[in-house]
Amino acid sequence: MKRVCACLLLGVCVWASDYDFDMSAIEVKPYTLSGYLKGEAKHQWLNPDSPMYPSKNKESMQTYLGEANVKFAYFKDAWKIDSEAIANYSDIDGTVERGVTLAQLYGQYKFDTNHLVEVGKKTPKWGKGYFVNPIAFFDRKKNPDDPEVSREGYILANYRYNKSYSGDVQNITFDLLGLKKERGLNEEFEGSEGTYLGAKLYMLYHDTDIEFLYMYASDDHDKIGFDFSKNLQSNFEIHGEFAKTLGVDDYAYLVGFKYLTAQELSITGEYFYQKNKTSPKEPFWDKQYLITKIAQKEPFGLLYSSVYYKNSYNLEDRSMQNVFGATYSFKNNTSLDISYTNNSGNKGTEYGGKLVEDVLWTKVNWYF
Questions:
Q1: pLDDT digits (tens, 9 = 90+) for 196-238
Q2: CB contact set of 116 (below 8 Å; sequence gap of 6+)
Q3: How far is CA 359 from CA 59, 284, 347, 351, 368, in A?
Q4: d(Cα 317, Cα 280) in Å, to the nearest integer?
Q5: Could you tell me which residues are beta bridge partners of residue 245?
Q6: CA distance 269 to 310
Q7: What span, in angstroms and rounded, lies between the C-alpha atoms of 169 and 172?
Q8: Does residue 330 sit in helix, strand or coil?
C-alpha cells in the first residue's frame, strides 16, 4: 500500500510540475506604481497682427518641454496613502525653467464599506465636461489643449458616504469637503481668504448620473450647481453642468455629447456659456464657446494609430483654433503624437490676436 501511495504522490508531483505557475504574478501587492515620461518639441510661427508682436524676440521660436509623472499608492488594511509627483523642464526660446510639484498626497481611511475620510492634498475632479467644468469649485482649471493632463490639488479634508440600492435609485454618494485658504495655505485657490465647505450629492437614477453641489464661503459668495450624464445608447452619451454664484448675477453652464460610430469614429462636442467674462489669462474667458473634437481610430486599417481634429470656436468674436493631429502607439508603452495648430480670426479677436499663429507640436510619451 505504501508503494501505491508513493507512486500516486510521485505522479501528482510530476503532473503538478507541468502546470507550475508563479504565485508572485497573481499575488496582490500592497502598493501600485505608475506614471509616464514625456518629451515635447514645439516650433511656432508668430502672428504679425498680435499686439505683443513688436516686443517679441523673433530669432527663436523653439520650445522644448520635459515631464516626469510618478503615482504611488500604498494599502494597509483600512488605510491608503496616495500620491502623485510631477517634475517639469522647459526651454522656451532659451529661457530654462525646472520644477517639482507634489500634485497629490493624501491619506484615506475606510471605516467600513459605506464610510471613508480623506485628508491631504487632492484633486476632487468635479464635473462631467471633457474640456471645461464650471462646477469644479475645488479644482484647478483644465488645460483645453490637454484636458486629461494631471492637475495639482489643494489641501483639504473629505468625508464620503456611499451606498448601493436595488430600486430606481441604484447608488447614492455624499461628499463633504473642507478647505482653508490663508497665507501659506492654498494661496492659489480661487476666491478670498477664508473657510470653504463643499457638499456633493451623487445619485445613479435610472442609469443617469446626477449630482447636486453646494459651496459655502465664509468671506465670499456661496455657489450652487448640478450636473448630469446619461448614455442614451451604448455609443451615445449626453452630459451637462450648471453653476451659479449666489448674491450676484453670475452663472455658467455647458451641454455636450460624445458619439462613437461602428467604424470607431468618435465625435465629442460641448457648448459653454458664462454670463460674465473672466480674465484673458483663463483658457475660456469670453462668454460662449463651441468645442468639437473628432477622432478616428486606426484609419485605413493602420493598427495602433489614430487621427484627430479639434476646433475651439469663440462664438462672440467668430475667431477659432484648429488642431490637426495623428498618434501612433508602439508596443513598448510608447506613443507618438504630432499635431499642427492654427489660430485664426480678425484683428483684435481672441484667437486672431494671439502672439502665436501656427504651432507644429511633437509629443512622445512612455508609460509604466
A1: 999 999 999 999 999 999 999 999 999 999 999 999 999 999 9
A2: 108, 109, 110, 159, 160, 162
A3: 16, 19, 19, 13, 29
A4: 14
A5: 223, 250
A6: 10
A7: 7
A8: coil
